[in-house]
Amino acid sequence: MSNAAAASPSLPVIMTLAHRELVRFFRQRNRVFGALGQPIIFWLLFSEGLRGNQLDYAHFFPGTLVMILLFTAIFATITIIEDRNEGFLQSVLVAPAPRWAMVLGKVFGGAAIAMIQGLLFLVLGALTLGLDSNLAETALAVVLMALISVALTALGFTIAWRMESTHGFHAIMSVFLLPMWLLSGAFFPGGGSGWLAWVIRLNPLTYGVAGLRHYLVFAPAAVRGDEPRSSLEAVNAAVDATATLPPVDALPLLALCWGVTIAFALLMLAAAWRIAATRTTGDMK
Fold it and tell me: CB under 8 Å to 164, separation ≥6 — which residues?
């Protein structure tokens, strides 16, 4: 059995499982609508509701982009629980293929779904907010998004692997993953010295959001014409436009953002592989 598993090609396993995740996702239209519609609604409500606090659509855009990646990647891993309950996962586990290939197939499939929706939202932001970033910065932002997607999907895989019901997964989602996003600098500013600031600094997702803030620069609100105002107000707003966004200097260094995000992705992949390599009673249920 072990020789057969070692001789089995891993790439077709990875590609097949990843393709299955994509096909399964796009066949569920309600899931497509919910995964993309909810973050957009949050973005519109937060941006409009907190505009009086000098926070506008451009400020919330990177955080909302990460929220799309988070929700889509995490929810994609619910299929692990469904696959186990339907017996498909047991068939994969007894197949002559290494478990790390199964892990990569599921993780890359979920990450691809998250990336597709993240790219659609990025195009929406570029069209509505006026993306000022050059081509190289935009390309690096997309690469960073891919790393975040892989890290979050692997995190979801690790959480979902030992769970037997989707209800328990939703409970973990509410008490752990949603606060993880809220405390990533997407909603609250990351500065200060209190305990909340330290939680934000220790959150690896903070550096993904900060990296996207470095790369994704949008036209000032006055230039976009978001706010109707008199000519004098428009001039003052244009002068102070950069003050409505967190200064880049206040963000973590770009090298630190890349380092933490890469380490986060590798650590989560290792955790997913580790937990999948451990045989449990649920594997043969």
Answer: 81, 84, 85, 282
Strand ranges inside the chain, DSSP E: none
pLDDT in tens, 50-106: 666 666 778 888 888 898 898 888 878 888 888 888 878 777 777 777 888 888 998
Whole-angstrom distance, CA of residue 120 vs CA of residue 35? 12
CB 276 within 8 A of CB 105: no
Among 115, 24, 21, smallest CA distance to 68 is for 115
Q: What CA–CA distance (Å, rounded) separates 55 from 188?
A: 11
Distance of alpha carbon 14 from the chain centroid: 21
132 φ, ψ (degrees, to nearest 5):
-95, -5
3-class secondary-structure state, position 268: helix
DSSP-assigned states of every residue in 51-111: GGGT--HHHHHHHHHHHHHHHHHHHHTHHHHHHHHHTHHHHHHHSSS-HHHHHHHHHHHHH
Which residue's entry shows tokens 């890359």?
108
pLDDT band at 235 (very low <50, low <70, confident <90, very high): very low
**Locate tokens 């997702």: which residue?**
205
**pLDDT tens per residue, range 123-177:** 888 888 888 889 999 999 999 999 999 999 999 999 888 887 887 887 877 778 8
Closest residue by Cα to residue 205 from 260, 243, 268, 246: 260
Residue 157 Rama label (left phi>0; alpha psi -120 to 50; beta): alpha
Nearest Cα residue to 146 out of 187, 176, 117: 117
